[in-house]
Specification:
The chain is an alpha+beta fold. About 55% of the residues lie in helices and about 15% in strands. The strands form 3 sheets. It has a 4-stranded mixed β-sheet with strand order 1-4-5-8. A 4-stranded antiparallel β-sheet has the order 2-3-7-6, covered by helices on one side. Bound molecules: flavin-adenine dinucleotide. The site of flavin-adenine dinucleotide (FAD) has 22 residues, from β1, β3 and α12.
Length: about 425
Amino acid sequence: MDYDLTEEQRGIVETAREIAQKKIKPVAKHYDETEEFPWPIVEEIRKADLFSIYLPEEFGGMGGGITELCLAAEEMYKACGGITMAYGATSLCASPILLFGNPDQRKRWLPDLAAGKRLGAFNITEPGAGSDATATKATARLEGDHYVVNGIKNFCTNGKEAELYVIFASTNPARGPRGISAFVVEKGTPGFTFGKKEEKLGIRASSTYELVFQDCKVPKENLLYKEGYGLFVAQAVFDQSRPGVAAQALGVAQGALDETVAYIRQRKQFGQSVSSFQAMQHMLADCATAIECGRALLYKMTRAMDKVMKPAIEKGLREGIPIFDAMQALDTPRFTKEAGMVKVFATDAAMKITTDCIQMCGGIGYMRDFPVEKYFRDAKVLQIYEGTNQIQRNEIAMMLIKEAASKSRRDKVSA
Ligand SMILES: Cc1cc2nc3c(=O)[nH]c(=O)nc-3n(C[C@H](O)[C@H](O)[C@H](O)COP(=O)(O)OP(=O)(O)OC[C@H]3O[C@@H](n4cnc5c(N)ncnc54)[C@H](O)[C@@H]3O)c2cc1C
């Protein structure tokens, strides 16, 4: 379907597609097997300037938005979910700095992230705080001109390879969820080290590490926004990043489907092409329909989001205030519900589609020599990270109920 892309957006898609097909696809199996970090590909993405596309020009960005980020991610995930995680996790680090950083923080960190000079990471999860981020145990105690951070964060994507980390720790444990704050921690800060590297089912080219903080002195200026606003920061970031997970899912699903169509067209059984069996054709049709529905929902909502974010970003930059404050001043809609919907829809679809693709290919689809099983392994995590799909459904339902309650209050007032 034609999504009315601008010339610039078409250029981004072409660049990302070229990297995906010429650079990523040929090495996807190698990095999946070795679990090495794909530095040569990160360099290709950096040279093509794709790290910059969603950041404002003032920081060396191209001035695009979530739409541009999703378009690039979708193309690259078609080739390999694991390799492209280095890109996705860096954008997840840039987002809280852009939305909640003060002018000094924006100037200090965003240009390197836009240039791809430093990779980023975002880590809220802890061994005892997964879906329930309010259970965060890491602490950050203010002592003079720095915070002393202690605790373990885990499952950090871009683990050891990132150089900038947005992390969450409690500055006031007595206040529970309202005591959690967000910080930027730079690699090399004394007291910040790396623990276990995870071995994973899928996205094996992506590194996933435990982060260890032992009396780590983080400068006071690295607090993002205000003390006690950490969960607020995380939610606002997820509102904008969950469409990106949907884009990853659509890429993975499309990649699996393309391989499957090519294979079943030439595979013959009972003297005819497997693609001539109606049972296979119906599965193909369902897969393609789900991908197109996901894409339509995704780009409809990212456009709506970019449209309302543009004036907030301009205001925040012009007035030297956090962009989140500009969003509040302009009453910018948050899209929490829609971001959850597109994440759930696209990632559940990707899991089903990659499962069906293995089925359509038969035994070969299950084998490591053939590319389809990797898409299936790479798809699974999309239903888990950035909030499991159960948590998304909880949030969507909660918002529906709240909306119904406020509508009924309004109706009573106007009656
Ligand atoms: C490969 C990988 C990379 C990751 N990268 C990062 C990263 O870079 N940064 C980061 O911060 N985190 C990262 N994560 C962590 C990820 O976000 C968490 O795994 C996820 O939020 C779920 O938390 P959990 O694993 O503790 O599961 P749990 O919270 O223990 O959940 C277990 C099950 O219970 C369900 N459940 C829990 N609470 C509820 C509820 N209230 N209602 C219904 N069901 C519920 C969940 O849906 C799930 O099915 C990564 C995870 C993986 C696997």
